[in-house]
Amino acid sequence: MNRACLLAAIALALVATPARARAAADGDGAYGRLKGDLTFVGGLGAGVVAATGRPVLASDLRLRYLDAAGVALGFEEGDALARTSRSGELRRAFLAGVELRPLFPVRFLKAQETGRRFLDLVLDSIALDLGTWWPIRYGSGARRPGMYTGLAVEAPLSGGGSGLWLRLSAQLRWAAPRLEGDLDPSGRSVMLGVGLAWHQVFGPHLVQRGDEPLE
Q1: Whole-prediction pTM value?
Q2: Which domain holds residue 200?
Q3: How confident is the prediction for the chain on average, in pLDDT?
Q4: How far apart are CA 176 and CA 129, in angstroms?
Q5: pLDDT, tens digit, for every residue of 80-108?
Q6: SS3 of residue 179 by DSSP
Q7: What's the CA gap between 139 and 87, in Å, rounded?
Q8: What is the DSSP letter of 66?
Q9: Which pLDDT does position 2 carry in this prediction?
Q10: How far is residue 147's CA from residue 133's CA, in Å, rounded to a whole number?
Q11: Tell me, what CATH number does 157's domain have?
Q12: Which residue of 93, 111, 112, 198 has the lowest C-beta tally within 10 Å?
């Protein structure tokens, strides 16, 4: 029995050691995201309107505070990937909204990190988007703003706070007539997207632990 307990203890120690080593190597679990108070994000990718298969080239700019909440601006160009003159098809769109990433502050403050850098960064990247979009369609002069909400997740390809990330997103969008009660199915759409984004942490260290900025 004592030998079995000893072997079990050794096995647990061997399993736990890599996790502790990773956590120690990466600091306190922020993984570089709190080296500055602000994170600038520039992204480029592609998307597709789920119902019609219409592809678009997409770009966006984001500014986050403590990598937890921020604002986002986006632009989509349909003609860059596939030209069409079919009435009602999305030609281009402008987007402006807010982004919330609630898991990072909650997990960080409660010390709920797993110690695995990649997994922690992916979990903390889960984001909720909410905002306004201005679609420009073929055969329609109306450019009234609609509304969108969405989910996104990112995975680090290099670095931690600053570096290159892969971004996957899905948005549900409503055109202005749909918000006003028009039940035309074309007034609601789903946009699926994939792209690359560069994160750059910067800004004064307003959030500190003692005299040292959080890593």
Answers
A1: 0.78
A2: 2-213
A3: 83
A4: 18
A5: 877 777 767 888 999 999 999 999 999 98
A6: helix
A7: 5
A8: T
A9: 46
A10: 6
A11: 2.40.160.20
A12: 111
